[in-house]
Amino acid sequence: MKDLSFSLPSATEIRHQIRSGQRTALEITRACLGRIAQRDPMVRAWISLNPEAEAQAAAITADDPRPLAGVPVAVKDMIETRDLPTTHNSPLYGGFRPAADAPCVELLRAAGAIILGKTDTTEFGACGRDAMTANPFDPARTPGGSSAGTAAAVADFHVPLGLGTQTGGSTIRPAAFCGIPALKPSWGLISTEGVKRYAVSFDTVGLFAREITDLVLLADVYNLPEAAPLREGRLRLGLCPTPYADQLAPEMRAVLDGLAKDLAPVADITPFDLPADMAELDALHRSVQHCEGASAFLNLARARGTLLHDDFHARVDLREGFTQRQNFEAYDALARHRMTVETMLEEVDFIIAPSAPGFAPLGRGAGNPRFNALWTALQLPVLNLPVSGQTLPLGVSLIARRADDRRLLEAAPKLLPYL
């Protein structure tokens, strides 16, 4: 079970402590490494740790003006790092050492962050081998995939911040299962160069933290666009159980049923029913994901196929029955659906929806992505908000128009006290 006797400050508080001289970056880094030494034999969030982390932290001074100076960060092990292996949790890449950082990592370093290490992932962030990571709240359960290690490391106080990715639900679902906030930004706002590609129409770098204020720090680092401020007064939320509501577990149904009452002090909730033809969103997502995945993994299947998990051969062979012609038809259908939802969002401030079917399931599987994939396919920004008072973590998704990511971060503090 999660050990709450240790509490790592938020990234925002760490910056305050370093600037004021209360603690040094080296002390913070050593506290994180100590926590990892204590907890990771059970949690198994980490693939590798940075042997230079303490030396890098020691070089951070109290007057360093950079926004993340001295803040330890976890990086999912399918994002390239110049000083640490990038294995993708694949036997094909066990010793792979990239020549340069992915841009999303280079920006963290430029902001002064300490890259503490690489965290476990579902193989290539897609399928195949599961991460070995356990859910900190119940080690018998999954932390969710594919960003399993990052979600668990942030939730278990190993680090205050982490990078993941999302092609279907690989940021929002693990955040929900581990009880932490996370932002899946609007598609295309953060470069995915240097991140193993799966489906380029959906692949997105995801941001994990334990505090919304820390996600704001990351939004600044990644230059997420400014958005129109929230209008004054109560929020207007559209409740969308999605076309797949029949797959919700009782615990999530109860949360959704109680939202109108719980959020009554700050928000008005109205039904947000997607048009009937949007029930095809999950199938359209899978069509694009599998067809683009066929291209992404073709070279590995042809050149190094004996060590490639059969799941990836299935992608390359399009065994699920999709065709590349259907892929282009799916592009067109998704474009129409995106325009429709953008218009519908003019009637509410945000959509609120389930982040996962229910509690994290037993085992190490990634979990059901159906409640995330439709929003990913629509390229919308999604913020996981943890729900309190549950026996295990649950989360709801706050969803906005494309490029309105910062409005999600502005609204979240109004809602969280009531969830």
Automatic annotation (TrEMBL):
Pfam families: Amidase
Signal peptide from the UniProt entry: none
UniProt feature coiled coil, ranges: none
Amidase domain span: 27-409
Domain of life of the organism encoding this protein: Bacteria
PANTHER family in UniProt: GLUTAMYL-TRNA(GLN) AMIDOTRANSFERASE SUBUNIT A, TRANSAMIDASE
Name assigned to this protein: Amidase
Organism this protein belongs to: Thioclava kandeliae
